[in-house]
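Tokenise the fold.
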Amino acid sequence: MKLAVEATDNLDRLDKFLAAKLAGATRSFVARQIKRGRVTVNNSPTYAHYTPKPGDVIEVAKVEQEAPKLAPDPNVAFKIIDEQPNYLVIEKPAGLVVHPAPGVSEPTLVDGLVAKYPDLARVGEDKLRPGIVHRLDRDVSGLMVVARTQAMFESLKQQFREREVEKQYSALVHGRVQGERGMIDTPIGRSQTKSGKMAAHTQEREGDRNAQTEYLVRERVKNYTLLEIRLHTGRSHQIRVHLHSIGHPVVGDELYTNKRVKHKDLGRIFLHASKLSFDDASGERHTYTSELPKELQDFLSSL
């Protein structure tokens, strides 16, 4: 496929640029294709660190991606918050993909979970997502619950479906958000302009799904606002899409951004799953909280 670079594009090093443009492609997958000579710029070989310029024509050779598979890996790092007979609560670090998928070549959270808890492989509906009832984007950190038994898997699925699970996030956004709280109630669907992106549509379109994001201002620092966010639905990229739609993109988000934003080198998205509440198998409510990771605390302190 061919891509013509436009002045309106978010111009970053080539591997990051293409990972944002190509649906389902990770940065590591793109970097491998560049190294193997399957990506050219203006008909010439290139490098992952090359910065595209307006007018460049990037050509990507069609690649048959390997079928994703589980590969238990004890070296995958994640923090165990609570370990119960029928569920786990873990803290996923930023930069870790939750489960294997086309275009994902690096170890995933699931690879690490199955290495530590082999019986987990029998839980769930999909052998590539054992025990997984919800996800966090790759560059988002924070709390996740993982089912250890099929009964708990079904219970958690129902709780998510009926919106009984409370999910709370901390996000730093560009700009000073007006008002102390708000609700974004705008349907979300696939972007009609860029592959791999979602978009909020004020006029609902075919394929859109309703989405509600509630936010509360916690702090304003210079031209940034720290928000506490509660999800009432769970759509792909929901927080990132909704905040971008009101003119306050999440700091560090290179997919949902705009030309007015001056990016600081955070190296990840400033979005952290900070609170999670759900019922266990007996119906008892459990609430878990997580502080901002050190790199986010340090970034906030540096402003």
